[in-house]
Amino acid sequence: MRRWRRRGRREVAKRAFDLLVAALLLLLLSPLMLAIAGWIKLDSPGPVFFRQARVGRHGVPFRIHKFRTMRADVGGGSLTLDRDPRITRAGAWLRPRRLDELPQLLDVLAGTMSLVGPRPEVPEYVAHYPAALREQALAVRPGITSPAALEFLDEAAQLARAADPEREYIEAILPRKVQLAADYAAQASLWGDLGVLGRTVRRLVGG
Questions:
Q1: pLDDT score of 129
Q2: What mean pLDDT value characterizes the chain?
Q3: Which H or E element spans position 138?
């Protein structure tokens, strides 16, 4: 019983932190986000936002929000490779800096995401999760950043080097991501999240 109470208190503290920080960041970054939205509209035809079905906590689907970084008139798979021809000029600048992820602060306010948590996958790749880790990996809200996101910052380049990018993702990258997601869910804490956020800022600022 005490363990469940402690877990409940941790979740309440984490949610309160998410709400406070997400609201503050949206307020502070709103001029930048408006400028990015204007640039996207001028750069290529199509909507400002990219919305896509992802799998959230306990396997519940939701729609993630990003700034659109690809041409709206071109289809393609879920994977994005380094120097992908679908990427717009604005997208080529936004993606390495992870600025296309800023609209996910709205998803944090809505409660479908957290600031820190396993990155949410599309359903077609969740189907490849190992059965032994699936429940644990989906036990917490997905996040804007995570230990796996930091480990695979160069994922697009790794996929571009592979002879079969999708096979590389499913067989080499995805199992490691799922293991890291399960490990995070088992040890999630507010202090741990602060550490991940600090590492994320340092990695992005440091290039």
A1: 97
A2: 94
A3: none
User: CA–CA separation, 193 vs 69, rounded Å?
Assistant: 27
Domains: count for the chain:
1
Where does 7-70 show beta strands of DSSP type E? 49-55, 61-67
CA distance 142 to 109: 13
Q: Is the predicted pLDDT of residue 75 greater than 90, yes or no?
A: no
pLDDT digits (tens, 9 = 90+) for 103-145: 999 999 999 999 999 999 999 999 999 999 999 999 999 999 9
- Distance (Å) of CA 109 to CA 19, 21, 31, 203, 207: 6, 10, 19, 25, 28
Tell me which residue range forms the domain holding 99.
2-205
Helix axes 2-43, 190-205, angle to 10 degrees: 30
Q: Which two tokens stand for residue 104?
A: 């996910």
Torsion, CA 166, CA 135, CA 200, CA 24, rounded to 10: 120
